[in-house]
Amino acid sequence: IKYSLEIAKRKKLYNQVLEAKGNIRVFCRCRPLSKEEVGNGCASVVDFDGAKDGDLGILTNGGPAKKTFKFDRVFTPKDDQVDVFADASPLVVSVLDGYNVCIFAYGQTGTGKTFTMEGTERNRGVNYRTLEELFKIANERKETFSYQISVSVLEVYNEQIRDLLATSPSSKKLEIRQAGEGSHHVPGIVEAKVENTKQVWDVLQAGSNARAVGSNNVNEHSSRSHCMLCIMVRARNLMNGECTKSKLWLVDLAGSERLTKTDVQGDRLKEAQNINRSLSALGDVISALAAKSSHIPYRNSKLTHLLQDSLGGESKTLMFVQISPSGHDLGETMSSLNFATRVRGVEFGPAKKQI
Ligand code: ADP
Question: ipTM of the assembly?
Answer without folding.
Answer: 0.99
